[in-house]
Amino acid sequence: MSETLLVTGGAGFIGANFIRTISELRPTWRVVTLDKLTYAGNLDNLEAVEHTFVHGDIAKRPDVDGALASAGTGAIVVHFAAESHVDRSIQDGAPFLHTNVVGTQVLLDAARAHGVKRFVHISTDEVYGSLPEGEFRDENGTLNPSNPYSASKAASDHLVGAAVNTHGIDAVITRCSNNYGPYQFPEKLIPLMIANATNDKTLPVYGDGLHQRDWIHVRDHCEAVLAVLEGGRAGEIYNVAGRNHMTNLDVLRFLLGALGKPESLIRHVQDRPGHDRRYAPDDQKIERELGWKPRFSFDESMRATIEWYGQNARWVKRALSGEYRQYYEEQYGERLKA
Ligand code: NAD
Ligand code: DAU
What we know:
Elements: E1 4-8, H1 13-25, E2 30-35, E3 52-55, H2 61-71, E4 76-79, H3 86-91, H4 94-113, E5 118-124, H5 148-167, E6 171-176, E7 178-180, H6 189-198, E8 203-206, E9 212-217, H7 218-231, E10 237-240, E11 245-247, H8 248-259, E12 266-269, H9 284-290, H10 298-311, H11 313-319, H12 323-337
Parallel strand pairs: 1-2, 1-4, 2-3, 4-5, 5-6, 6-10, 7-9, 8-12
Antiparallel strand pairs: 9-11
Helix pairs in contact: 1-7, 2-4, 4-5, 6-8, 8-10
This protein binds nicotinamide-adenine-dinucleotide and 2'deoxy-thymidine-5'-diphospho-alpha-D-glucose.
């Protein structure tokens, strides 16, 4: 059956990869994109992809009403729009409350008024907080967010749960681990380190570098979202994982090896305040119920990702200019002088 999607945050990293995935796997579906085009949004990410673009803020009801009117009754909302970077949330939490909390509530209210068929909320494994070695969290795990970003995402999950319980809306939530792949803004670990290593610049690893993340290729995440959109049970939460646990130092060593650069570029710098030591979502439910599991290997897809950044110099140059320079100085200037 052909569907119409309203994709919020479609000009960002995962949203754009998701729209590309849809155009390939569900070519008859129509996509309306709603995006504010913050520093992280870039319409180049959707170059040559068919979609209707609406420039607007999810926290502003008239913007959301306009986008939902364009999508029409019976559309499916896929909600990626967010302030997404932990370090920025430590600098200033206000935009995180505006978009992740207020924006999600505005979207939920508007979705109800416009007769949306299903609301797919994209959340994160960070809502479970930092886990001890050897422990994994399934969807029944207690929410224990520990930085302003993850607290705002946990709040948004609760708002979605409240809308299901109170108004009976058909909503599903995904909670994925750390993504990598093309079109990721170079404030995040992988593209930042690829850019620095390529330019023979220092790789600033926070603290002892032994923090662990579960890395997943963005295409795997996008296919998981599609599986949940089509087959997830209403009101349910589905964890999504890469099943690939690595310390940050191991990730950096891999990148340097692949780029043929020396490990002496790595520099330990002042840690991120409140830095979560380890995320480890348990993703058995999505495999059991929907048959999804990650299919991309870290080694091969990370090499392909490095190649993508190498081949897209114009995209990288644009991302590294303008506001990014000021952000980089604020975030790393003192750390690298110390
Ligand atoms: P991103 O920062 O690359 O993109 C966010 C997009 O949202 C941008 O296009 C931005 O312009 C848009 N946006 C921000 N505020 C908006 C607003 N008020 N109204 C409309 N649009 C707005 O983020 P990402 O890494 O692609 O993450 C997408 C979603 O996936 C987020 O909800 C994030 O919490 C979640 N997530 C990310 C990861 C990851 O590893 N990146 C992992 C799990 C979950
Ligand atoms: O787990 C899912 C989450 O993953 C998503 O919800 C977030 O949107 C996404 O930003 C990501 O959060 P992290 O904080 O884990 O990702 P980040 O890329 O910022 O950092 C990954 C790890 O690398 C983390 O332990 C901090 C460390 N790091 C990061 C940067 C940018 C460094 O050591 N140095 C750095 O310069």
